[in-house]
Amino acid sequence: MIKLATWNVNSVKARLGHLTRWLEAAKPDIVCLQELKCQADDFPALEVKALGYFAEVAGQKSYNGVAILSREKATEVVRALPGDKSDEQARYIEATIGGLRVASVYLPNGNPAPGEKFDYKLAWMNRLTSRAASLLESERVFALAGDFNVCPTDEDVFDPAAMAVDALCRPESRARFHALLNLGLTDALRALHPAGHLYTYWDYQQRRWQNGEGLRIDHIMLSPQAADRLAACAVDKRPRGEDKTSDHTPVVCELAF
DNA sequence: ATGGTAGCCTTGCTA
After folding, report:
1. What is the pLDDT of residues A85-95, one digit of tens each?
2. Which of A121, A208, A248, A251 has the fewest beta carbons closer than 10 A?
3. A121, A109 in Cβ contact below 8 A?
4. Is A10's CB less than 7 Å from nucleic acid strand B?
5. Which nucleotide is nearest, taking the CA of residue A42 and each C1'?
């Protein structure tokens, strides 16, 4: 069984204690991290190595930054999303661990919409869809896991009316998320929990966590052959309840390999 | 009432 997780940690340096505690408790095999907010050289590689994890990092000063932690060493590492060589934001890393191709993705937020940032988000999503299509063509078994900054449906939003014009919920964003589903990818959490509110993010402001007012924006998207192996998937809410924690919490799935 | 929180290491930007 492979335990695969994704977590937007909102600064890996500020959250090193949260991360190491969670790794020790949850014991995942592969972890996709987002919003490291540091350069690759500043990633706490020794600390995660001490817990038995290799780390592959695409870093950036202050903003963005993604990584893949794995018990088995990753190979064939790609540190950028294909399709725009002028894109310097560290939002994508892809690698092979065992027989599984894994990508840690940090999609642009896209607010305010409309505007340049929204245009960048939509273009980035088009590139992600192209990449997923290429991986499918190559018949790779793969997972795209990360902060997609998209609430796929109103069920994934505590206040759909208030969020309707937000870049996370706008129809252009949702259409591109659904394009991934139309390619044949499976939203792992919804595959096993089709109905009901499930959240992975609660804003720091306005007591959203305490009030249970969140969004589901962190997803694990599986290729058909990976989805055939899907045995379990859940949101691990415990880390969100800790002091000085990330505004996101991990999503974890188990694949029967 | 255009706030409120958090992390960056700028004195504002991003989320």
Report:
1. 999 999 999 99
2. A208
3. yes
4. yes
5. B8
A117 touches strand B (CB under 7 A): yes
Q: How far is CA A234 from CA A125, A166, A168, A181, A200, in A?
A: 25, 26, 21, 19, 10
Phi, psi of A179, rounded to the nearest 5 degrees: -65, -35
CB atoms within 10 A of CB A201: 22
Q: Answer for the pair A248, A10: CB distance below 8 angstroms, yes or no.
A: yes
A38 CA vs B11 C1’ separation (Å): 20
R_g of chain A computed on alpha carbons: 17
**Beta carbon of A13 within 7 Å of strand B?**
yes
- Evaluate whether A53 touches A16 at the Cβ level (below 8 Å): no
* Closest-approach nucleotide to residue A38, Cα vs C1': B8
Where does chain A show beta strands of DSSP type E? 2-8, 30-34, 54-58, 66-70, 75-78, 92-97, 100-106, 142-147, 186-187, 218-222, 230-235, 251-255
User: What digits encode the pLDDT tens for the residues A116-133?
Assistant: 999 999 999 999 999 999
| Nucleotide B4 C1' to residue A168 CA (A) | 20
Please report, for chain A, the start and end positions of each structural domain, with discontinuous segments joined by +.
Answer: 2-255
A47 vs A161: CA distance, rounded Å = 43
Task: With beta carbons less than 8 A apart as the criterion, state whether A165 and A159 touch.
Answer: no
Cβ neighbours of residue A142 under 8 Å, at least 6 residues apart?
A100, A101, A102, A103, A135, A222, A223, A226
Which tokens is A238 given?
């415990």
> Using CA atoms, how far apart are residues A110 and A149, in angstroms rounded to an integer?
8
Give the model confidence (pLDDT) of A224-248 as tens digits: 999 999 999 999 999 999 999 999 9
